[in-house]
Amino acid sequence: MKALVTVEGRTAAVQEIPKPTPAEGEILVRVHYAAQNPTDWKTVPHRPAGRIVGCDFAGTVADPNGSSWREGQRVAGFVYGTMAEPLRGAYAEYLVAGSSFVWAVPDSVSFQDASTIALPFATAMQAMFQRLGLPEPSKPATSAFPVLINGGASSVGLYAVQLAKLAGLHVIATGSKQNHDLLTSLGADVVVDYKDAAWPEKVRELSHDKLQHAFDCISEKETTAAVSRALSSTKGGHIVCILPRKTSELPEGLTKVKVESTIVYTVFGDALNLGEDAFENWGGPTPQDRKLWEKYLSILPEYVKSGKIKPNPTKEIGGLEAILKGFELQQQGKVRAEKLIYKIA
Ligand SMILES: NC(=O)c1ccc[n+]([C@@H]2O[C@H](COP(=O)([O-])OP(=O)(O)OC[C@H]3O[C@@H](n4cnc5c(N)ncnc54)[C@H](OP(=O)(O)O)[C@@H]3O)[C@@H](O)[C@H]2O)c1
Fold first, then answer.
1. What is the pLDDT of residues 241-257, one digit of tens each?
2. Could you tell me if residue 25 is left (phi over 0), alpha (psi between -120 and 50 degrees) or otherwise beta?
3. Distance from the alpha carbon of residue 99 to the mean position of ligand 1, in angstroms
4. Enoyl reductase (ER) domain: which residues (predicted)?
5. How far apart are CA 131 and CA 143, in angstroms?
6. Nearest Cα residue to atom 32 of ligand 1
7. Helices 118-125 and 155-166 sit at what angle, rounded to 10 degrees?
8. In the CATH scheme, what is the code of domain 2-117+311-343?
9. Burial (0-12, 13-18, 19+ Cβ within 10 Å), 249
10. Is the pLDDT score of 275 beyond 90?
């Protein structure tokens, strides 16, 4: 099969490689569409040659391998691309995934749309429900307390806004002016332009100094510092980050603010320690993270079919050969409020 594989020189190239074989508990998927995440290009330089790149996919079951899936059934999900044991990677004509880590794509949902969901949705789900401890949509908040989604127009942010709304919260999102209508249409109650230097003070005012929960979908040192200024001046609060930020990086004097980092790959339940920058949930096995993801994978078909969760807007820019160009576009900050997707088969 053809796949985008890491090669010498800290880059990747399309190569002909053997089709993977599913082991017990795994299925083989024929990939129709794959979607790009920053993790794809961030990991490439750190992996040895021969690893298959890519995480998010949608396709059909090629070998159910004794699972309850049927051959030809439409599925989507994400894998930990560039991993070797077990072999994982979505920028390939076929991939192997754990049989409990895919969701059934309803007929009314295109492969293009379905491919955009799993990784950023799982990231938002884990950050908000497991780490921030926000109420889940199945048991929404009884009174709509405020939550801040910084970087609401990012891929993760667009799902975070929708999940926070389903959870009955008062959703405050940041985004550039051109994305305000999109964010409002997805459920943001208030949208603030982060390009205004005083945006944190504006959020503090809009939340009547009551904001105690924030999800920083950008998680650069300066964005997390800005988010900390939006939290309640008397009570402080909890900021969850998806890059390895730390409380100690905050401006001095914020004694009541806690920063916590989280990485989505723990949803597969396996121990993770690649010696890279430390995330707080990086380490031993994570059965609770796996359980939560499996729960949401079973809810996703209804969420997407009913429109409760809308996929990211998509831009299709080619097939496997176009992916390195897509990496460049995202590195240059040219992918905004949309997902680059690739037609694989
Ligand atoms: N820890 C994890 O498990 C995990 C999982 C997924 C992603 N991530 C990381 O999270 C980050 C976001 O990934 P993604 O795929 O969601 O990103 P993305 O879709 O590429 O994000 C692009 C968007 O970010 C917004 N943005 C950029 N700078 C901003 C700022 N200073 N303040 C607010 N918004 C800003 C822009 O919004 P406007 O268009 O409105 O300007 C833009 O549309 C990446 O660093 C990625 O590696 C981590």
1. 999 999 999 999 899 99
2. left
3. 29
4. 9-342
5. 20
6. 151
7. 50
8. 3.90.180.10
9. middle
10. no
Each as own residue / partner, the long-range contacts of residues 240-243 (CB below 8 Å, 24 or more positions apart, any chain) are 240/127, 240/128, 240/131, 240/132, 240/214, 240/215, 240/216, 241/216, 242/123, 242/127, 242/156, 242/216, 242/217, 243/219, 243/277
Query: Would the pLDDT of 302 be above 80?
Result: yes
User: Does pLDDT of 21 surpass 80?
Assistant: yes
Pocket test for ligand 1, best of 41, 42, 154 (most atoms within 8 A of CB): 154
176 Cα to the center of ligand 1, angstroms: 12
The residue whose C-alpha atom lies closest to atom 4 belonging to ligand 1 is 242
Q: How confident is the model over 311-337, as a mean pLDDT?
A: 98
Which whole number is the average pLDDT over 216-240?
98
Give start-end residues of each CATH 3.90.180.10 domain in the chain: 2-117+311-343
Where do the DSSP E strands lie in the chain? Answer: 2-7, 11-16, 26-35, 56-63, 74-78, 94-98, 102-104, 146-150, 170-174, 190-192, 213-216, 237-241, 257-261, 314-316, 339-343
**Report field, pTM of the whole predicted structure over 0.85:** yes
Q: Using a 6 Å cutoff on CB, does residue 156 contact ligand 1?
A: yes
Compute the half-sphere exposure of residue 249: CA atoms within 13 Å on the CB side of its CA. Answer: 18
pLDDT digits (tens, 9 = 90+) for 167-206: 999 999 999 999 999 999 999 999 999 999 999 999 999 9
Residue nearest atom 12 in ligand 1 by C-alpha distance: 218
C-alpha–C-alpha distance, residues 11 and 22, integer Å: 27
Residue ID of nearest Cα to ligand 1 atom 23: 154
Q: Say if domain 120-266 classifies as CATH 3.30.70.980.
A: no
Q: Are 47 and 6 in contact (CB under 8 A)?
A: yes
Q: What band does 259 get if pLDDT is binned at 50, 70 and 90?
A: very high
Q: Whose CA is nearest to atom 2 of ligand 1?
A: 263
Q: Could you tell me where in the chain the CATH 3.40.50.720 domains are found?
A: 120-266
